[in-house]
Design brief:
Blueprint (H helix, E strand, L loop, with lengths): L1 H13 L14 H4 L14 H12 L11 H13 L2 H7 L4 H5 E2 L12 H5 L4 E4 L3 E5 L5 E5 L7 E2 L6
Antiparallel strand pairs: 1-5, 2-3, 3-4
Helix pairs in contact: 3-4
């Protein structure tokens, strides 16, 4: 036990930057289940995306094919950013439209909707350069394949 006390005393006296590099995230079940284990991914998003997500928090529901889905879309978009999925996806080459895009009206092709719209409240499990996997709620997985977002606008630009 004395060795530990000596080591602690030396580290304290050193005054250098001897920070513990362990992962100290809150690993409570409600959060840990949604936090990807992704080393070396930047914690922040590019400023235009971060600003857009701030706008999204305050936005009223725009005209959509399913206006009742808006709260889940906002929650899923914010969750992608909060839990590091968006940063990882951007690092893997995803575009902002593939993550946060949505078709602006009922006549547009819903296949252009981004991941945040597609999730519809499902828990994201994994993301790769080509697809995202989510829990389908029945013990299986659903997959979102990256695709061109023709006709989509970013969620915070809907209704402008």
């Amino acid at each position: 036990m004395g060795k530990w006390l000596d080591l602690a005393a030396r580290l304290e006296a050193d005054g250098g930057d001897n920070r513990d590099n362990r992962d100290n995230r809150d690993n409570s079940p409600s959060i840990a289940a949604n936090v990807p284990n992704v080393p070396n991914v930047p914690a922040s998003l590019p400023l235009p995306l971060a600003d857009g997500l701030k706008l999204l928090r305050k936005m009223a529901a725009p005209r959509l094919r399913r206006p009742e889905a808006w709260p889940a879309v906002v929650s899923d978009a914010l969750g992608l950013a909060r839990y590091g999925w968006a940063a990882k996806a951007l690092a893997l080459g995803w575009s902002p439209f593939e993550l946060f895009g949505a078709v602006p009206d009922a006549t547009s092709d819903p296949a252009a909707d981004g991941l945040a719209v597609w999730l519809a409240g499902r828990k994201l499990l994994a993301i790769t350069a080509d697809y995202a996997a989510a829990d389908d709620g029945d013990g299986g997985r659903s997959y979102f394949n990256r695709r061109e977002a023709h006709g989509a606008v970013l969620l915070w630009d809907l209704g402008r």
